[in-house]
Fold these 4 entries.
Entry 1:
Amino acid sequence: MKQLAKDIQRLLVNRHQTLVTAESCTGGRIATALTAVAGCSGYFQGSIVAYQNVVKERFLGVSAETIAKHDVVSREVVEEMVLGACRMFGTDYAIATTGYAGPGGGTEDIPTGTIWIGAGNVERIDTVCLHEISTREKNLQHATEEALRLLLNQL
């Protein structure tokens, strides 16, 4: 995971671009992975852990209607989180996550272990949906790694 963070840093610093994270289920793990690399202040602006819906709505501009229509664990919500984070922090890129990491927390339509990841900016957002079946910690570790990979692939 450290190599992914180093690669992201190299690209963004060379391009004079910035990044922020908006994390729900990963609870700051992506920000922790990024800041584990010395020199991250050259591109990493910060993070918001928006665990509750009210925080997603108030600070990231996620629509309550989107949550009601699609569920908080959805492509639509993670895309709104990416856009809201870019706007809130004034950054070039954002990574966002929302999910039911387990155990429990899922719904009939969206089972436990479903984690949506989004990475991008106001022009383009790439998303991936993970369907994890391991422990909470392993699910979150895998989601963190996949989030870094998703952004790196876009860069």
Entry 2:
Amino acid sequence: MHALTKLDNPGRKCDQCLVRHRALCRVAGTDALAELNRIARTRTFSAGSTIIASEDSMPFVGNVLSGVVKLTKVMADGRQQIVGLLFASDFVGRAFEDHWSYSAEAATDVEMCTFDRTAFERMLGKHPELEHQLLVSTLDELDAARDWMLLLGCKSAEEKVASFLMFVARRAANGGGCGEALPEAGAFEMPVSRTDMAAYLGTTVETVSRQITRLKTANIIRLTDMHHFIVPDIHRLAVAAGVDEVTLED
């Protein structure tokens, strides 16, 4: 399902962007930033709508400004696997490719700053600092995917769910960015349903619900409603996740 609003004149300058200091364009010089501003278009997607469909032509790429995007892969028998979640400042799409092998779907209402893919590719050729940063971001995503492979292959059900909650807390604590800082405690919004969480963790909804109940009973987390949770002590959640150390905010 596509549900898209395109604003041809978004009325937002790059130097006023709230995620610019974390996004790909943070390395852009004055000339590159001015060019990005000329080709940028703000697009909004309602929750559940398709941003980029698997194997479809990919007319644009861009940065998530707000909301959460889930990356999915549909198998031959129709089963859907969530292979990634993208938050504010994350890059969506693939440069130098006409098609993408994954689908990008709005897990929540999403706002994106998008660039025509062909124009963006020309920019990368003219501004090597952007091309370099795109490579670094891609390698960071590869490292994150390898870490997630470890989680899926080696951790128990409780550790998987606790690790997911830590992942959400870390991204929220860093404004959506990939920084390492974590608060001692805090309240967080759950960006996806338990069904999506199960698909992301490679388990069942029943298992996810059972493990969340265990974490709640042990007072490792508290649930305010289906979409929000509180972590009283991040160290206890880290122990449940099988994490040896956590880096907290200064």
Entry 3:
Amino acid sequence: MKASGFTILGLLGIGGYKDASRESIELARYWLDKADLTERADDPAGDLPYGAQRRLEIARAMCTGPKLLCLDEPAAGLNPKESLALNTLLRSIRKESETSILLIEHDMSVVMEISDHVVVLEYGRKISDGTPAHVKSDPKVIAAYLGVDDEEEAAKIAGGVV
């Protein structure tokens, strides 16, 4: 980071330190705004509601300028309102940045709303792969996650023989 190379000069207020500091603050403000946290900018992170803490974590990660943002169940434990705020932030990242998102998530409202491509695993085995519309209508996904009444029907769906 440029700013760390100018530590002595930074103490004296010389060189690129002031510019780097100003740019960092502007970037932080931008992502706080995107995460709808500007009004809480001076609050300790631990004092924020759980959903806001999740959005703050993502905003902090985005300040590093990642090419790939890896998220492991960011909607876990969120209520529907918090999930909607998370979706809004993730859609904004997809639309306005060059950052790709790798998402591991069980909340299908989040997955289907922000994904271009979905891979579904069941006990570590891939059972479906494609667009959200394709995956949503895949009989294997329906059988695995929504269940079926009849074992024979489940075997047909899974491609097995009864």
Entry 4:
Amino acid sequence: MSDIMGKTVIITGASSGLGEATARMLADKGARLMLAARREDRLKTLTDSINAAGGEASYQVADVTDRNAMQALADQTRETYGRIDVLIANAGLMQLAPLDKLKVDEWDAMIDINIKGVLYGLAAVLPTMREQQSGHIINLSSVAGHTVFPGAAVYSATKYAVKALSEGIRQESNGEIRATNISPGAVETELTDHITDPGAQEAANELYSVAIGSDAIARAITYAIEQPGDVDVNELIIRPTQQQL
């Protein structure tokens, strides 16, 4: 039996890209899913598709920047399934531009989604995981959380923060909560769609010309979850073979 079978998994940013690919893969392994994102139409379509294929999924519309919404998501998950085994903090925003372009509103948005969104998810699920004396937090960082490049200083700062939070969870786990930090390189998602700076968009398009499919990251997440309970996969960096950065 898979170590994923019967586990209750919350996935944020589940309406497309990595979140959707991971949801489908974990459903095939027997996980019980609570899918969260802002776009209800896509959530409903994905949930219906998983259930029609014999999986088990529910959804709740949630904005990770709203602490009350994240608490409601955790409460609904516990009400539906009775427990919370895994949180996959996948929701993220990448808006690249040189610092001197002063895109302060974009800085704020990335901080709110990429850092505070992860923290609000943690705050919502940690009490349940402590009560259960078990749990698994999987945070989606980035290769930008390991190296800084022109135009990505603020984005990198948020992803370094995610990496720090993942390590903090590990050190404070008391042997109860597993922590996995996953850092994708160029992957086929909607991440580059939100770049407003033309120069940064051009650079991103060049980098993402070698992008790999979202399934590559879904497999990494699946690998981390399906390890025995005494094995904690802490760090995975997944790049396209051709990516230099």
